[in-house]
Design a protein that fits this description.
The longest helix has 23 residues. This protein has a 5-stranded mixed sheet. Helices cover 41% and strands 16% of the residues. The termini are far apart. By secondary structure, the protein is of the alpha/beta class. The protein has 6 helices and 5 strands.
Length: 167
């Protein structure tokens, strides 16, 4: 972590990493024509150890959500299936699959941008990350740069339907 990064507040750090996740979401849309969701996994020292974006279509893999791609990369980088002390930044609230992968990996914290009112599993529809029946709970922070992420998602689907983007 550089000296200026060491002086950041936790809120500033969350904003910085969420901006990085948003840049990854842009890559999903512009490079792969995938739903614009990006994720970056940061270790306890503040280093990015995994990142990714939705790759379901490109890889013909229903599990290739941005979070899973980032966690797989982090697991390889850390040579461990446990991602203890790590924070996952993602532009869309995790689904049930991704939430449970975080529980199994022992991710410490997830910070997400836009809520998902259809399949969100970090408090919107389900609350899998805080369920007391699990042997691990993940701290959740939602709504960080939600408007930015939400407009990307809305405009992606509008474009797919042949409608003009919203401002």
């Amino acid at each position: 972590m550089s000296a200026p990064e060491a002086m950041e507040t936790p809120e500033q750090r969350d904003l910085r990493w969420m901006r990085h996740a948003l840049a990854l979401a842009d890559r999903a849309e512009h490079e792969d024509d995938e739903i614009p969701v990006g994720a970056v996994l940061v270790d306890a020292s503040g280093n990015a150890v995994g990142e990714g974006w939705n790759r379901n279509i490109a890889e013909s893999d229903p599990a290739a959500h941005a979070e899973i791609v980032a966690m797989r990369q982090a697991g390889r980088a850390l040579s461990n299936h446990r991602l203890i002390g790590c924070t996952l930044y993602v532009t869309l609230e995790p689904c049930a699959m991704c939430a449970m992968a975080m529980v199994h990996a022992r991710v410490a914290r997830v910070v997400y941008a836009a809520s998902d009112p259809k399949t969100g599993a970090a408090g919107s529809v389900f609350d899998l990350l805080a369920d007391p029946r699990h042997n691990h709970r993940v701290e959740v922070v939602g709504g960080v740069l939600a408007d930015d992420a939400g407009s990307r998602l809305t405009n992606y689907f509008r474009r797919k339907r042949g409608k003009p983007p919203l401002a």
